[in-house]
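Two entries, shown back to back:
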Amino acid sequence: MIHFTIAAAFIAVVAVNGDGGPVCHTCSNVASLEACTDQINCDADEECYMEKTLDNVLSTSFTFGCQKTKVCSMLSAGSGAVIGRKRNVRTVPGTRAKRAVTLCSQCCSGNLCAKGLCVGGSTTGVPAKNEVYVQLLGGSNAYEGTVLVYFNNAWGTICDDNWTNTDAGVICKMLGYSDVGAGAVGQARFGYFSSGRIWLEDVACTGNETSIAQCQESSWGITDCSHREDAGVLCTSVSKEDDVIFLADTGRGGKVTRMNLLTGSFVDIPVNKNYAVGSFDYDSVEGRIYFVEPRLDQLVSVHFDGTDIRELKQLSTNADLEKLEVDPVNRILFYTDTGNDVIGSINLDGSNFQIVINSNLDEPREIAVDPRSKQIYWTDWGKSPKIERSNYDGTERQTLITTGIMWPNGMAIDYNDNKLYFVDGGTHLLEVMDMDGGNRHTVMKDAGAHFFAIDVFKNYLFYTDWNQQTLMRVNKDGSGKTAVGPPSFRELADIRIHEYGLDVQAPSPSSHVTLDPKHVFVRMLGTASAGRVDVYANGEWGSICDDHWDNKDASVVCSMLGYNRENALATSSVKVSSGTGLIYMDEVNCTGTETHIVQCGFTEDNWAKSDCTHQEDAGITCELPQTPDNFLIFTDVYSGHLFRMDMESFSFTAIPQPSSPNPVALTYDDVTKQVFYSEVVPNPGSQIRSVGIDGSGVKVVKQLSNGTVPDGLAVDAAAAKLFYTDAGSDVIAWTSLDGTGQTVIAHDKLDQPRGIVLDTANQVVFWTDWGQTPKIESADYSGANRKTIVSTGIQLPNGLAIDLKAGRLYFCDAGTHQIEAVDLDGGNRKVIYQDNSAHFYGLALSDKYIFYSDWNKSGLMKINRDGTGNAMAGPPGFSRINALAAYQVQA
C-alpha cells in the first residue's frame, strides 16, 4: 500500500495550559479529529500539529500532536511586530510586477508566525483537503485539453493506456459538462508536460462515477508511462452553463477560469492572447463574458467558449479601469474608472455610452447593479473611503457608509434576502447590511486576509483573498470557512457565480441557447463541390454520422455554404481524411426547407450522442449557382489557402488551388467568375495567379521578377485590366487579364504601396502607401491627375474599400488602430471604429457590414457600417487572414 502524507499546523487548539502553551489532541492514525479524545500539554514555543495520510484508495487517517512553532525567517529576532500598509492595487494583467505584501502578512497567511507578531494573533488557516480535482490544459477552447489531476497536494497527468470515452466522460462531468459524447484522446495530443507526476494509468470507469478517484485504476503514482502518453479529453461544448464559478486571476496575466462550483475542478477559457482580463461579468442571456482590459483601456466581450471577441468601447489613455457589472435584464454594463475617477455605462450592444458619476470619487472600485430598482452601488477606497448608491442615471445619489472602513473592495447583492455584502482589505472584515445601509454587522473577521472580491450563492459567500492561492468560501453566518478547489491561483481579482437561469430574480433572464445558429457553422473539406461536412459549435469542430443521411439533409448544408439546394447529394463514408473530434450529429432529419442544420431536430439532449465512428463521417456534393452571390473570399497566409464564406451563414469552404506559401492580395472578377490572388515570394519572384470560384482552371497569370511584392489587387472586368501594387519595386501598374503586357501608372514618391481599389465608372484607381511618408492617393487609369487624398493622421494605412453609391472611401490603419472613411476627394473624413489591440490589414464592404482582417485575431471580423456591433464573422481557427473581398449582386 502506497502512503502519502500532508503535514500542517493544526488549527484546533483545545485550551491554553498553565505553561502558556496550547492543549492539543494527540493520536496516531485515527480516522478523524472526532475520533481523537486524548490531549497533551504543549510547550509555550509549540503549536498543535496534524499529519494526514492517504493511501492508494484514498482512505484517510490522521496523526495529531505538538510541534515547535515555526518563525518566519524574514522577521528579525527582537524586531517586534512587522506591520505595514499592504498595497490595495491589483497587479496589472500581463506585467511581471509582484504585489507588495508586508512581511507579517506573508508569514501569518501561512500560519507560520510566532505568536504575538501579528495584530490579532495568528490567523485561522484552512486545513489540508483530501479532494481530487482535475483541470484541462493545452486545448484551443474550454472543452478540451490534457487532463491534469490534483492529488496529494500535487498536479499530475493520466497515462493513456486503456483510456476510453467512458473515462473521459467522468472527467467532463467533474468539469460540469455533459458526459454525453465525450471523447478520449491520447499521445499528448494537446501537449505533454515534461515535469510533474503521472498519477494514473489503466483507468477503468463505468461512467456512473462523479469523480475519477472512484474509478478502478492502478495504484496512484505507479506507472511505466512517459508524458508523451498523457491522456486528454474532448467534452461537448453544448452543455448548460450551470453552477459555474468564473474567476479572473491578474496574477497569472489576466486569465479567466471556469470552475465547476460543485467539484472545484476547472479549465482556463482561452481568451485571445492579446487581451488580459482585469475584471469581468457573465451575461447568461447571450452567453458572453464582458471584461475590462486595463492595459488597452477597453471594454471587451467574448463568448464564454473564448471565441467571438468584440471590442465594446475604446476609452481614453488616462483611464484606469477597475471593475464592471452587467445588468442582463436591461442590457446595460456599468464600470468604474480610477484614472478619471468616474463611473460609466454603456449598452451591451455598444450604444448609449455615458458617464454616470463624475464628482467626489477618489478610488472607485467595485460596482454592483440591482436591475429591479435600477440602482447602482459602488465602493470607493480613496482618502475618504465610502460605499454609495444612485439611480442608473446618477440621480438620487446617497452615501451608505463612511465609518469603520479602510479599503472597501468587493461587493455583491443577495437578491433573495435583499442584502448587500462587502469585504474590506484594510479592516480584514466581511460585512453585510441592508440595501439602504441599515442593519450593518460583521459576518467574519480574518486578520491575515486581504479581501478583494465577493459573490453570493445560496447560503454561501465566495470570496477572494490575495493571501490565499485558492478561492475561499464561508457560510452567511460566518462559520465554515474553507478553501474551494486546489491551490492554483495567484491574485484572484474577480469572481462571478452563475446558477442556471437564476442570476437575477424578478425578472430572471433566460439563459443563452447553446445551439444558437449564430454560433453554429459548417465547413466542407474536399474539392470545390464535394467533401466531408464538419460542424462548429461553441468552440469545437465535430463531424456528422451518415446514418439516415439523405439528400434533404445535404441540401440544407449546401445552402448554408452558398450552393444550390437543388441537386444536392448526400454521400457516406467520405474518403477525405476522417474527422478527429467529436461526432456531433447522428440521425439528422431535415425536411430540406430549413435554413440551418441545427433546426433539423437537435437539442442539448441529443447533441454529440452517437454510436458511430469517424469511418461513417457524412459528406455532400453541391453545385454553385449560375451567379454566385453574397460571399466573402480571403487569403489565409500561414495555411496557404483561399476561402469562400457565405455572407449570411458565415459557413465556408476552401477554394482548391495548389497551396501557396504566402497568399496575400486577392480580387474577384464577377464576369469570368475568377479569383485573382498573389503569391508573394520575393526570390525567385512573386506570381499573380487565377482560379475559378469553383476551384477550376488554376493558372499563373503573371510571373514577376525577383524582389517584387504584389500586396494589392483590383480588377476592372469591363476594361480587361488587372491593377496591382508592388511594394518591392514601389510601383502601381496594370496588366491584361491574361497577364500580357504591363503598364506602370505611378512610381515616383512611392515607398510601400499596399491596398488598391477602383472607381470603374470614372476609371480612377486609389491606393494606400505605408512607407516613411504614409498617404492615400488616386490617379486616372493612365496615371494622370494623381492626387493625395489623405496624408495626415495616418501611420500604416493598409486595406482599402470603396462605396461607389455613397462616394466614400474606407481605409484601415494598423498604426493608428482605426478604420476611417472619407469622400473620394478626401473630404468629410470620419473615424468609424477604433481598436487599440488590432493590427488591421484587409477591408471589404457589404450593404450591412464592414469586414476586416486583424493579424491579432484568428477569425474574420465584422462591424456594422456605423462602427457598432464588433463581432467575429464565422468561427475562429484561421492562421492569419490577409486580403479579403466581398461580393453581392446589386439590386
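entry 2 starts here
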Amino acid sequence: MRVTATRRTRTAAVTAALLLPLLGAAPPSGAETSAGGLQRAFASAAAEYQVPQSVLLAVSYLQSRWDAHAGAPSVTGGYGPMHLTDARTALAEAPHHSEGTEDARGDSARAALLPRQEVPAPTALPARLTTLPEAAALTGISAERLRTDPAANITGGAALLAAAQRDLGAPLSADPADWYGAVARFPASEDDAAGAAYANDVYDVIRGGEERTTDEGQLVSLAAQPGVHPTARTTSSGDTECPRSLACEWIPAPYEEFGDDDYGNHDLGDRPASQSIKYIVIHDTEGAWAGVLNLVQDPTYVSWQYTLRSTDGHVAQHVKAEDVAWHAGNWYVNAKSIGLEHEGFLANPDAWYTEAMYRSSARLVTYLAKKYGIPLDRQHILGHDTVPGPTTSTIGGMHTDPGPYWDWRHYFQLLGRPLEATGGKKSGVVTIRPDYASNRPEYTGCVTKGEPCAAHGSSEVRLYSGPGEEYPLIKDIGLGTTPTTGVNDLSSRVSTGQQYAVAGRDGDWTAIWYLGQKAWFENPRSAPAAVNARGRVITPKAGAESVPVYGRAYPEASAYPAGVPVQSVSPLPYKLLAGQRYVVGDEVPGEYYYAVTFTADSHRVVVGQDRYYEIQFGHRVAFVRAADVDVLGR
C-alpha cells in the first residue's frame, strides 16, 4: 500500500500505541540474557508447570520461532516467544484496499473502484486476543514483565498449557502425546477445527525437531521425536476449497446488484475451464481480522479469495476459485489469479507474522498450486507489490504489500521449494537471496515520514546506479519521483526469490538489468545477497534498438468479437533496450476477460493470436510481445 498523509497520521498514532508499553523500558531484571538462557528458561518453566519440554518448545516455535522481538507486539498484540496476546495494544486500521489511488479491480472498461472505508471498532475482544492477562492471573507475574521478559513469557505459556490440561480433566503427563487437547486450546481459537489444525502443526514440529538462533542470538534446540503420535483430530474444510489439514470456514463475499446498475464485489467466472489460473497473489490486510471480514462482506467493496488469521493460521474463504475477485489492481492479473490476504501491517517491522500463519498459508498455496498447475516461483507466487500497473497512469497508485518484512526465503522453504543456487560461477542469472535476519537495509517512514524505521531483518536488497553506496539509487521513470529509502518506495529494491539477468560484476558488487538500466547491489562472498541460477532470458530481436514493455497481456484488436469493446494494448513508459536481458517467467496468449454486467451471460474471455512473455523487469513483473524478442538459455 502507498502511505497517504492521512494514512501516515493514523500509522503514527497506531504504532505509538503499539509501542507504548515499551518506551523507556530497560532490560528487565532477572531476564535470561546469557548464552543458552532461553533454552534453560524453557526447561525451568516446563518443570515448574509439569508440561513436557518438547510441547512447550513446539508451541513457542509455532507462535514466534522462539524470537522475542525485543518486546514489541505482533500484528495481533502478541508478545514474546509464546506470543501471549494483549489486544488492548493492537489497534485496527483501515485495510490497504481503502488506501491510495489503486483501483483494486484494475479494469479500464469500468469506472475506477476507490472505496474509502474504515474498520469498525470491535465490540468485544475474543479470547485468542487476551491470553496475556490470563497468564498474568495464573502466574502472578505482571503484564509488563510478561511482555518484556522472555523467560517470564515462557513461564506464562507453560501456565496456560497446564491450565488447559487441567480443564480437560487430563493428567499432567510426561508423555507429549497426552497433551494434544491442551495444545489445541492454547491459541484460544474460536472453533475446534482451528484448534485441531494448530495442534497438528505443533506435533509436526515435535516429530521433525527444530534448531535455530533467535533474534537475540540464542541457540534453541528441539530434538526430533518421530514416535510422538497423539490421537489427532482431522479438520474439515466443508464446502471451502482448502486442504483437509487446514481449518477453513466459508464467509462469502456478496455478489449483489446495487445503485446505478453497479454490482460487487467480484465477478462470476468459470475458471479454469474458461481461462487458466496462473498466479497466487500474497497481500497483507493492514487491518485486524474482524474488521477485514466485515469489509469483504460489503457488496460495494472489493474482494479476495482467502483471509488468513495471525494467531492460529485459521483461514476464511470468501470467493470461489472459479470466480474473479477484485484485489490486485490489474484486471489481467485478477482474471488469472487467486488472492490471499494475511492479517498484518506492512510498515510495522516488529508487528511480526506468526509461524502458524506462514505454515497455513504455505499449505494452502501448495494445495492451490497443485490443483491449478501454478509453478512455485516468484513470477507466479506474486506479492501485491510485484503486480504491475496495467497502464502508465496507474503505476504510481499500485500497492506495495506485503512489503520488505515478509520472509520470502522462509516461506519458500515451507512451500517445499527452497531458494537454492542452480547455476555455476559464470551463470548469467541470479536469484536474490539475502539472509533475512542479518540483511537490514535502512527504511524510513514506518512511523513518521523521512524518519528511520526500526532496524529489522528484510527480504529486500537495495539497488544503486553504480558499484557502491556513494552512487545514486536506481530511479523508476514510471513513478517520476526521486527514489528514497521509504518503506513504500519500490524504485530501487529487489526481493528474495526474484531472478534477474547479470549485467556486470565489480568486486563485491553485482549488476543486473532492471527497468532498462544497469542496477548494482552489494553481493560479497562472505554475506551473499544472491546466488547463481540457471534460466531462460529474453532480449530484443537483432536490429531492434528497443521494444515496448506492457503491464498486461491483452489481445490484438482483431481478436475482439462484436459487442466487446477493444481494450488498448498500451505500453508502459519503459523500454527494453538492445543488449539487455530479462528472466522469463511464462509464455501466455493475449487474453481479456470482459465482465461489466451483473448478469454473466454477456461475459466473454477474448483470446488473441499475439503471444507475450512475462518477465522480471523491475521490482514488479511486466510483459513483452513474443514477436519482439528472442529467448536465450533454458
